[in-house]
Amino acid sequence: MHHDHRALGLASAPTGSRGAAAIAMQRPVQPVTLLRPHAARRAARFFVEKFPGRSLYAVKANPSPDLLRVLWEAGVTHYDVASIGEVRLVHETLPDAVLCFMHPVKAEEAIAEAYFGHGVRTFSLDTAEELEKIVRATSSDGVPASDLNLLVRIRVSSEHSKLSLASKFGADPRDVASLLMATRQAADALGICFHVGSQAMTPAAFAEAMARVREAIVEAAVTVDIVDVGGGFPSWYPGMEPPPLETYFAVIHQAFEALPISYSAELWCEPGRALCAEYASVLVRVEKRRGDELYINDGAYGALFDAAHIGWRYPVTLIREPESHVRPMSFSFYGPTCDDLDHMTGPFELPGDVNVGDYIEVGMLGAYGCAMRTQFNGFGAVEAVVVDDEPMASLYGAAAPARSNVIQM
């Protein structure tokens, strides 16, 4: 895929070696986002070819137009959008993409703009009030729309996931049957969706959720046309090494085949993290060392929001010439802002002689990294560079799952 680097605001890496070490040799003063389109393309092909249904990309994980185009060209045609801003962005970037508005609480004006202005026909809901709102917003001269795909979101457990999504959305179990029956009347295609939480560490999460889907279908006695198992597909992080994604797909397919649903029913999923985590990393510089604490030039208000606020551990590599052979030790990071909350506890394993002026690559930040960046305290300016080396870890057969924590320049 050819990129016009100037149009995308990207700088080309030096000719020859186009990896993290080559960028570090330029001694950048500010953090640099390293983009790996080939890794995102590989992840997309994996889902398109191996998931036993349709894969929607969850745009919130990384809304970069460049990434959206990579996924589209790799065969991802449907996009899970959660706001009118995401609807507009994807429709503008990929005019032929199918948009699915999968946030169960939407402004009525947003529903109307999505339906009439951007061709959106798929919406999720978890209450009777939201169903009425969707019907009103998509009606024309008082006539209800006849081409809606409506998915009722049910509440399932997040106990197998590192980040819970169980408390905010999902129909009350006592209301599911009546809500499914009412939605069946308004929908051309009726669906059930759920979300097991982010970074689900076992396929059992999906097996248990599909058991809830079965109960709901049996109780409501409705014909279901779409079963959407949501997101939660994991990526690789230190201390969070999941089983192969194929095992998740097998469990989901087996449960789907056993459901009492329409013979032509569709199976959907909504990967976010799994499609984009390997797409980007961030190269940071050490500005100060205080014992086992490193002060770096990106942090909680930049790409490392999750490392600070929920203690997420990312893989790290010291990039230095000559290579360090000092035994690794555990470090925590402070980011560049004046806020004490700009602290990432880790632990991050790096050679014990890491010091001021060294460069560290922080991996797997394509998901919920760059998307969370702010301009707080004036530290938001970050250059992005396309590189062609492998990500620090991969679930798609690119590498042993993780690289060494030292790379020679």
Name its key features.
409 residues, alpha/beta, Lyase, Ornithine Decarboxylase, Chain A, domain 1, TIM Barrel, 10-stranded mixed beta sheet, 8-stranded parallel barrel, 12 helices, 20 strands, disordered N terminus
List the helices and strands and how they pair.
Layout: H1 5-8, E1 10-12, H2 20-24, E2 32-35, H3 37-50, E3 54-58, H4 65-73, E4 78-81, H5 84-93, E5 98-101, H6 108-118, E6 122-125, H7 128-138, E7 149-153, E8 161-163, H8 176-186, E9 189-193, E10 198-200, H9 204-220, E11 226-228, H10 245-257, E12 266-269, H11 273-276, E13 280-290, E14 293-296, H12 305-309, E15 316-320, E16 328-334, E17 343-351, E18 359-362, E19 383-386, E20 406-408
Parallel strand pairs: 1-19, 2-19, 3-4, 3-12, 4-5, 5-6, 6-7, 7-9, 9-11, 11-12, 14-16, 15-20
Antiparallel strand pairs: 2-13, 8-10, 13-14, 13-18, 15-18, 16-17
Helix pairs in contact: 3-4, 5-6, 6-7, 8-9, 9-10
Describe the 3D structure:
There is one protein chain. The chain is α/β, with parallel strands linked by helices. The chain has 2 domains: 5-36 and 278-408, Lyase, Ornithine Decarboxylase, Chain A, domain 1; 38-276, Alpha-Beta Barrel (TIM Barrel), CATH 3.20.20.10. The protein is built from 12 helices and 20 strands. The chain has helices at residues 5-8, 20-24, 37-50, 65-73, 84-93, 108-118, 128-138, 176-186, 204-220, 245-257, 273-276, 305-309, and strands spanning 10-12, 32-35, 54-58, 78-81, 98-101, 122-125, 149-153, 161-163, 189-193, 198-200, 226-228, 266-269, 280-290, 293-296, 316-320, 328-334, 343-351, 359-362, 383-386, 406-408. Strands 1, 2, 13, 14, 15, 16, 17, 18, 19 and 20 form a 10-stranded mixed beta sheet that branches. Strands 3-4-5-6-7-9-11-12 form an 8-stranded parallel barrel, surrounded by 4 helices. Helix 10 (245-257) links the parallel strand 11 (226-228) and strand 12 (266-269). The protein is elongated and about 70 Å long. The relative contact order is 0.17. Mean pLDDT is 89; it is low at 1-16.
